[in-house]
Amino acid sequence: MLAFRSEATVERWCELRGVARGATFAIEQALELGRAWHADRLSPDWRRATPAEAQAIFASVGLTGDFWRLG
Amino acid sequence: MSKIAAVSEALDRDVRLCVYDRFLETGEPPTVQDVAGALGIGEKDAEASFRRLEADHVLVLAPGTLNIWMAAPLSASPTAFRVSTPGGAWWGNCVWDAFGIPAMLGSDAVIATADPATGEPFDLRVHEGKLDPVEAVAHFAVPARCWWDNIGYT
Known about the structure:
By secondary structure, chain A is mainly alpha-helical.
């Protein structure tokens, strides 16, 4: 997942790379995703999220739809 | 859970915590030998734990080696995301992970990156859990169900 200055530069990058556009979303959602996913990473009790838990985390930061479906 | 499975689970937890401790302290991931020495265990046990953690997608090893490539959110290799905090600087695997580093540490951070299309450098500044205003968007090239087909390109 990369950070771009704008949707226009995402489009340009996809053209340059010859790849299909994926999913573009607000940088603040990436911040929230980073927090929800990693905040407890150093806890002895940390465990990897199950697919259902991961899906719920995506939804909690507004990342929904087929692109974000894990299964 | 069997006794053997419980022992492996406890060992894997200790190995995981040791990996993160060393990675955060030195800026580089520890080797199997480093972890074995730190925990006072045999290298074969440490290696087996590295492989279980890789299979569970907790660690990513460089292909064909036992060298840690990713212990998310940290990357052993330079990336487009240099994350500087008051306590040190590390590479994030992607922008999601770059934001995960200050979240994991409970600290502020400045994430230095560049627009992949134009090369224009810019910073993402996290202060007390909030992002300073910035003109930026995030882009995932690969759908979620395919990420682990090639975790180095998402």
